[in-house]
Specification:
Strand 10 and strand 11 form a beta hairpin. It is elongated, with a radius of gyration of 18 Å. The protein is 4% helix and 55% strand. The chain has an 8-stranded antiparallel barrel with strand order 3-6-7-9-10-11-12-13. Belongs to the UPF0312 family. InterPro entries: Lipid/polyisoprenoid-bd_YceI, TTHA0802/YceI-like_sf.
């Protein structure tokens, strides 16, 4: 799909925003991170390094869409032992469910931020998830590519997606939190052909 604009940005209501067109995700400069709690106290952080997809910006921002695929085997939490457990059938079961996907279903936009609702599929289960999204800026890279950066945040209950493994603690509570915070920093490149 070619772009529908010859300039990489436009001004809407005094705000600089990306031009209409297809902005491909740059996997090397995109971070899809998650934060959970261990022993109900300690924050454990991880990220996925295999992220592909595109943001299609429409003339009317509310007609835009986002499609993302995440390679679940690319999980990196800083501990190979923990990562192997995350990939195992007890948690992500990457042999049976190698990817997670997000496909937007609606966009609300005001200025440089908005809300994108979409269908998130993890572990073969699809749920509606809202993302609070901000446009962080635009830059032309040294090779002439036009780049737009976005950030997004949400929280999910991992058990809603069938990722239910846990252990009860002797003093009460569980080993791993059900609620997981997701933080996304997305760098995209305007498709030119």
């Amino acid at each position: 799909m070619s772009t529908t604009s010859t300039t990489p940005t436009r001004t809407i209501d005094g705000q600089v925003l990306p031009a209409a067109g297809t902005w491909d995700i740059d996997p090397g400069h995109t971070d899809v991170a998650f934060i959970g709690r261990h022993f109900m106290v300690t924050k454990v952080r991880g990220r996925f390094t295999g992220v592909t997809g595109a943001v299609v910006i429409a003339e009317d921002m509310t007609d835009s869409r986002v499609d993302v695929t995440i390679d679940m085997a690319s999980v990196d939490s800083g501990s190979e032992v923990r990562d192997e457990h995350l990939r195992s059938p007890e948690l992500f079961d990457v042999a049976a469910y190698p990817t997670a996907e997000f496909h937007s279903t609606s966009v609300e936009w005001n200025g440089t931020s908005g809300r994108i609702d979409g269908e998130l599929t993890i572990h073969g289960v699809t749920r509606q998830v809202p993302l609070e999204v901000s446009f962080e800026g635009y830059v032309r890279d040294p090779w002439g590519g036009d780049r737009a950066m976005f950030s997004a945040r949400t929280k999910v209950n991992r058990e809603d997606f069938g990722v239910t493994w846990n252990m009860a603690l002797e003093a009460g509570g569980v080993l791993v939190s059900k609620e997981v915070q997701i933080e996304i920093d997305l760098e995209t490149v305007l498709r030119t052909a």
